[in-house]
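>> received
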Amino acid sequence: MEFLTDPIAIESRSMDIIAPYLRDLNLSPQEIKLFSRIIHAAGDPDYARIIRIHPEAIHAGCTALKAGCHIFTDVEMVRTGINKRKLAEYGGEAHCLVADNEIARLAKTQGITRAMAAIRAFGQRLNGAIVAIGNAPTALFEIFRLMEQQEIRPALIIGVPVGFVGAAEAKELLIAKSPVPYITVIGNKGGSPIAAAAVNALLYMLDA
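>> returned
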């Protein structure tokens, strides 16, 4: 059995396979790159019809990354999936506090999820940053609370929590009421690989 072994050739072939699913969506070249990275990470062309991007999302994300913004994530899987070497070239770092002992204590005493406690602890550091939520709808709801009550304004929210309890609702809220640009997917799909893929797509655009 013959198969591709060169990583570049594999990626190129993958993008060729994905391209027909995007042909009729009237996407810009940058949007095609973002959609393609997400579909590639998911292995699911169905994402072509459920990705939603704020008109200013790509510009806002790339501008923030070029300026050396930090990225704050809800779970370690998202942070791990981000190309931190590329991020560091522009002065940024990726952060996650969900496994921190103090966050665990705060979550227990306040009766909230660790992801919520972590986002709450980031607080003002979220201003001008990119927030990437791949797992916890509660983290996305907490960001909304901070934006409404403390007027915190991230540069971009990548909100793609996965699951059946609160995930679709949190993303609907993001689309309907976010005061800042966003990247999301509608429905129950999403996850950490999708959040990381969206971040990496923006990082790779900086080379263009």
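>> The mean pLDDT is 94.
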